[in-house]
Every structure is written in C-alpha cells, then in structure tokens.
Amino acid sequence: MGKGRLEAFSDGVIAIIITIMVLEIKVPHGFDLAALRPLIPIFLSYVLSFIFLGIYWNNHHHLLQAVRHVNGRILWANLHLLFWLSLIPFVTGWMGENNFAAMPVALYGTVLLLSALAYFILTRTLISHHGSDSTLAIAVGRDFKGKISVVLYAVAIPLAFINSWLACILYVVVAVMWLIPDRRIENTLTS
Questions:
Q1: Which residue of 7, 22, 117, 189 has the smallest Cβ count within 10 Å?
Q2: Which residues, including other chains, have CB under 8 Å from residue 78's CB and lie 6 or more apart?
Q3: 184 vs 45, 50, 142, 144, 147, CA distance in Å?
Q4: Which positions, given as ranges, span the membrane (predicted)?
C-alpha cells in the first residue's frame, strides 16, 4: 500500500501534539514582566519538547522519503511511535510545572527513551520490508546518533534522581546532536 496516508496522519498527529503543548501554557493574570517569571520553567520545557518533536517530524519525513510503500506492520510500528510522542505534552507540562523536579525529569527521559526505541523499531520494520540493500538501509547504516541518544537517555533517567539539571543537560545534548543536520538519507537519495 502507498505511504501517503501514513505520512499525512503522522504529520497531523505531531501538529496536534505541538498544539496541545502550547495550549497548556496558561496566560498569567498579571500585566508586567514579573507575572511571566513563574512561566520560565514551563516555557523552557516547552521549547525543549518542541525541538524534540521537530526533530522527530523532520527525521520521520526523511525516513518515509526513502521508502516506496508500507504494510500493516509498518502502520503499527508508526502508531507505536506516535503513542510515545503523544505523551510528550503530559511529561513536558509535569516537568515544567514542578520546576524540573527529579521524578518528572526522569519520566520525561523515559518517554524520550521509549520514543527513540519506537523510532528505531519503525526504522528496522521499514528496512525489513524494503530489504537490507534498500536505499533506506544504506542511508541509515549503523545509526550512531540513534544509539548514542538511547545511551544518553538511559544515563539521564537515573541521574535525574541525583541531579535533575544534569539530566536535563543530557536531554539538551541529544537535541543539539540531532539539530546538526543528518544528511544520510538526503545524500543517499540524491546519489
């Protein structure tokens, strides 16, 4: 079957997730800049999550550009990814509302870890369907950034109970690592 509906559905879900996140930021009742001060942790957690969702949207787009068609297993693997991504507004809000306390930061990392594992499963399911010599398989290669991301999340989750800010720094490191353009799929498609 074609991949168009999967792409459109995923784009729509990610757009809704981002919309839900921004709607969770409550407008302060004050009229001066001091009224915004309590929103700083909420805004910071929103920015980090917006970046992660943007990274997933971008990489998902590239991933699907490298494939020709999908099957039922791929549809379920994609839903699995969207499930974990749909929890990002909840953990984002909880983390921001509680000033980056240990448990919310750890749960945030858990959702990021499970999202990364779901993306890995989706990638492997696509490669399995298209073959180990497919454009996607060649482009993904060893997926060093994906593996490092999982390791950093796995370290950050227990670290949150020791120092939640260090755990958040690891989340930022992963985001920065993925913000650096990954042109493996683009380069493979154009060559």
A1: 22
A2: 6, 10, 70, 122
A3: 29, 23, 11, 11, 15
A4: 12-29, 35-55, 75-95, 101-122, 150-180
Tokens of 124: 């492997």
The C-alpha atoms of residue 2 and residue 69 are separated, in whole angstroms, by: 5
Q: Which of 40, 39, 43, 62 is nearest to 51 (CA)?
A: 43
State the 10-residue block means of pLDDT for the chain, 191 residues long.
91 97 91 91 96 95 88 96 98 96 98 97 92 83 89 98 98 93 64 64
Q: Judge contact between 90 and 46, C-beta under 8 A.
A: no
The structure tokens listed for 130 are 């298209």
Count of structural domains, the chain: 1
Residues 115, 118, 122, 128: what is their CA dihedral angle, to the nearest 10 degrees? 150
pTM over 0.85: yes
Contacts of 107 (CB under 8 A, 6+ apart): 91, 94, 95
- Residues 11 and 58: their CA atoms lie apart, in Å, by 10
Name residues whose C-beta falls within 8 Å of residue 178's C-beta, 6 or more positions apart in sequence.
55, 59, 145, 149
Going by the DSSP 8-state scheme, the letter that residue 13 receives in this structure is H
Q: Which domain holds residue 62?
A: 4-190
